[in-house]
Known about the structure:
Layout: H1 3-10, H2 14-22, E1 29-30, E2 38-39, H3 42-56, H4 61-69, H5 75-106, H6 121-132, H7 138-152, H8 163-171, H9 181-194, H10 196-214, H11 223-239, H12 250-256, H13 265-274, H14 276-291
Antiparallel strand pairs: 1-2
Amino acid sequence: MQKKWIETNMGITRKTIDQYEEHGFIHPTKNPNNGKYREFSEDDLKQIWHIKFFVQLGFSLEEIKNMLSNPNFDFYKAIEEKIEKMESEKNRLEQLIGLAKFIKMTGLFPSVPSEMGSIKFEDFLKYSCESLSVDADSQSAIMYEMLQYAISKPDAEWDNEDIQQLFENILAKPESEWNDEDMLSIVEFFKNILGESNIESMFMLRSYWKELASLSQHEASHPEVQAVVKKMYDFEKKFLFYEHSGTMTPQWYAQHVPSYFTGSDIATFNEKKLGKANCEFIVKAIEYFGDHSE
């Protein structure tokens, strides 16, 4: 068989075949009818298959060469070490996936160290994965899954009622009267995980968003618009960002909060409920607030 046949029928590239030949794993012969081509025997094909398989398990070509040439090679120990290495890589990858999901969900990145050199990058990354990953706690994981469901579901499949009013109505009913399983899962999340007080805060915050959206005919700098942003800022500083209340400034707020409305899963969800144009207007209003507040 020739390289073209191997590439077409075995899915192994010519470059890979050349590498295996360079390492002495296979020994093709010249085609007697055309010296430009080389023929690979059935044993060569099987060897290519075996080598490719071991590479996928994480063995380097040098390790495979040692494996094949050393009669005392301990394959059991070698595969055990590969499993440990892959498990470690798997854990690291899962942590990075969790961190990437947090960024996708919120639109926020881990803050750059206030003083460069105060922490090594790997330590910073480890801390970020442990503290920000959506898998770091059950609340974040549930929130992420809930948002994926909410933003993927067509608007036509949601109840026609405004989602805020729906929450208010459903929470006032006994569970036996809840007839929408999709809404039930969301309400249960907020009710059991976040708690009643945070639900009230969400309703209040959403009312500010709706009020800002209703003022979108004005410029972002309009006094009435900025008055609503100021009320929203004061409310969030007191009830939602209380851990930052000592250092939270309008500038910090304008840097972090726009991700509710652009470049995140939360923003995608809000666009479905408020409209993209209204979300863009809210971002402009918040940014203006940050730029023109003491």
